[in-house]
Amino acid sequence: MAGRVPAVAPWLRTRLRTAPGAACTLALLVALTACLAAAFPRAVDRYEDAGLRQAVDDAGARRSTVQFYAPQPSVELPQAEREEALRPAALDRQYAQVRSVVERPFTVDADESSYGVRTSEPQEVPDPWLPRPSGLPARIVLAAQNGLADHADLASGRFPRTHGTVTAATGEVEAAVTAETARSLRIEVGSVIHVPGVERAPLAVRVTGILTPRRPGGAYWAAQDLLREAALVRVPGGGSDPATYWLGALLLPPDAAPAVLGTAGNPWRYWQLAPDTSRLTAHTLPGLKSAIASLESGPGLREARRLTDPEVDASTDLDDVLTAYTRLRDGVGPLVAVAAFGTGTVAAVVLLMAGGLAADRRRAELALLRARGGSLPGVAGRLLAETAVVAVPAGALGLCCALLAVPDGRRSYAVAAAAAVTLLACAALPLRAALRHRTVQVHSGREDVATARPSRRRTVAELTLLVLAVGAVTALRRRGTSGGSGGVGSSASSGAGGSAASGFSGDELVSLAPVLIGVIAALVLVRLYPLPLRRLARPAGRLRGAVGHLSLARVGRASASTVLPLLALLTALTTAAFGGSVLAGVESARDRAALLATGADARVEGSVPLTDGLADKVRAMPGVREIARTSISYQAKPDGGPETVPTAGVDPESYARLARRTGLGAFPAGELRAGTDGSGQRAGTDGGGQRASGGGSSPLPALASASVAERHGTRPFPVRLEDGTTVTVRIALVRDVTPAVTGTEFLIVDRAGLGTEAARPTALLVTGDHLDRAALRKAAGATVGVRLRTDERAQYVDSPLQSGAERVYTTAVAAGAGYAVIALLLALVRAAPEQAALLARLRTMGLTRGQGRRLLVLEALPQALLAAVGGVLTGWAAVRLLSSGIDLTVIALASGDSPPGSAPLQTDVSSLLLPAAAVLALATGIAAVQAWWTGRRGSITELRAGDAR
Question: Hey, where are the domains in the chain?
Answer without folding.
Answer: 11-42+326-590+799-948, 68-79+108-281, 607-783
